[in-house]
Write a structure and sequence with these properties.
Oligomer: single chain
Shape: flat
């Protein structure tokens, strides 16, 4: 459980650093957030465990909405790519440039 809390804390610190260019990341920030996440998890398991089934239901609904959001985005991108509207839509649909050969990284002659 501490590894999950530490990962979440690092993600929060990284999000703050990304959104605020003046923010200076320090090690104790992640450590303090890790402790906060651990305390929250312990208190939730002690006092609010009877609320767990509704919380799980809400999380499932959020995941389903997120899944369908991605499906709609890819579907619309596919329709636009078939009509040739944008290069980004072409990329989503798997249509690359006309020259699809891989670069010869190791300078091995081709036969």
């Amino acid at each position: 459980m501490p590894a999950i809390s530490y990962t979440a804390a690092l993600q929060v610190v990284a999000l703050i650093a990304t959104c605020n260019p003046d923010y200076m990341t320090q090690g104790w920030h992640a450590a303090l957030l890790t402790i906060a996440f651990e305390v929250f998890a312990i208190l939730f398991n002690i006092f609010a465990i009877n609320k767990m089934p509704p919380v799980e239901g809400v999380v499932v609904i959020i995941h389903l909405f997120g899944f369908f959001a991605f499906i709609v985005i890819f579907w619309v991108g596919w329709e636009k790519a078939k009509s040739g509207i944008s290069p980004a839509a072409d990329h989503i649909a798997g249509h690359g440039p006309s020259d699809t050969r891989q670069p010869n990284v190791y300078n091995i002659p081709r036969h």
